[in-house]
Amino acid sequence: MADIQTIASSIARGEKTARAWVEEALARAEESKEYNALLSLTRDRALERADAVDKGEVTGRLAGVPFVVKDNFLAFGAPSTAASKMLEHFDAPLQATAVEKLEAEGAICIGKANLDAFAHGGSTENSAFGVTHNAIDSERVAGGSSGGSAVVTALDVVPFALGTDTGGSIRQPASFNGVYGIKPTYGAVSRYGVVAMASSTDTIGCFARTAEDTAFIMSIMAGRDVRDMTTIPDVDMAIKPLVRPLKIGIIKETMTDDVATDVRQAIGDYTDKLRAAGHTVDEVSLPMSRYALAIYYIIVPAEISSNLARYDGIRYGTRAAGVKTLAELYGRSRDEGFVTENKRRIMIGSYVLSSGYFDAYYQQAQKARTLLIREYDALLEQYDILISPTAPTTAFKIGENADDPVKMYLADIMTVPPSLAGLPAVNVPVGHDTSGLPIGLQLIGQRRADALLLSLAAQMEADRG
């Protein structure tokens, strides 16, 4: 599958029809079924829209370009399940703002991508509809929770795919599959029409195979939305030539012996290239980052327990049959609709918000979060960009961490800190380990510095050739 501009230009010039591009994407999706990256195809609606593009009835900068959405986005053409039995048969009455903006430019959604149910996980092993396999090594995980979107991008099914990132759910699978993935500044893209996970860290981003495609899609989706009061205006996503060398800090707490040797080597090689390109790279310290995972797994489950309370079998979600009491209806519906990881996070969240524990856990975590934010702010007054590995290892084997939740959570140890601070962060593919598995580096910037991160990524991509 070609890049976005090639596809759009070929259609505009009449060299290849939108229908042909969409049929090619659908065929690639069928050929890739064994990866279990897609939960459904929106074939009929996609072909109908492609024909409308070819007739000149649908126009725009993305006219005829196929893409995939993570299945926690409300989108027409197939059920919006969030990879959960709770929403298995839910047909969306509306579309997410991000999807609407892309369709307004003529983009064509061809399918819904697999994820950890309700986006709870870092491997896409928690999907109610089966695990997604890594695009490079099918015995390994795709990463998560946006694993399906990362895999269809890496397999060239589509030139880009949408995901959500709460604590690393775009960046980590992007790293595991060797593609670009962006978590924008908190509030840069509307979350309206996307199933909520943790409202204070949820962000909407995308996967692509180039920095240019990533920036182009984000520039279309970004902007104020009156239906999402957390959105902010005027977040620039456009790539621009760098007019001066940048001052870059590499976070020393992320380059310890706990990080795989191949990952540290790849990051070191990239920093050498940054210096060769004229940028300054210094080692910096972010002491509070060591507490970020503990902060995250108090605050996020608390928000999850609140957001999932609506799924009770009455107002929303699957309803258990053969029950005799209201309490039984609630209990059975939730037991059947939620996977184990959903239940674990609901229980943790309910516990830390309960009387007697709110002050001891949740409130203390919020205070610690503020200290982390202040440390980031102080560093980003001195440095343009911070860097770290995206993940401490390359993709692990399917089932390797399934029975150890703490070990699974540690896969997000690098990506969680910027999420807690609301900062933009971009995964950049920087090499492979000795087994050929992709390694990613994370560029982190000040709020609204999304364009700077993408511009540096584009410059280094061009220098790499």
Describe the structure.
By secondary structure, this protein is an alpha/beta fold. Helices cover 38% and strands 13% of the residues. The protein contains 15 helices and eleven strands. An eleven-stranded mixed beta sheet has the order 1-3-2-4-6-5-10-11-9-7-8, with helices on both faces. Helix 8 links the parallel strand 7 (247-251) and strand 8. The chain is globular, with a radius of gyration of 21 Å.
Short description:
The protein is 38% helix and 13% strand. The chain has 15 helices and eleven strands. Strands 1-3-2-4-6-5-10-11-9-7-8 form an eleven-stranded mixed sheet, sandwiched between helices.
Which value, in Å, is the CA radius of gyration? Answer: 21 Å
Largest sheet: 11 strands, mixed
List segments where confidence is low: pLDDT < 50 over at least 5 consecutive residues. none
Give the H and E element order. HHEHEHEHEHEEHEHEHHHHEHHEEH
Alpha carbon gap, first and last residue: 19 Å
- Strand portion: 5-15%
Structural class by SSE content: alpha/beta
Total helical segments: 15
- Principal-axes shape call: globular
Number of strands: 11
- Share of helical residues: 25-40%
Mean pLDDT across all amino acids: 96
Query: What is the spatial order of strands in the main beta sheet?
Result: 1-3-2-4-6-5-10-11-9-7-8
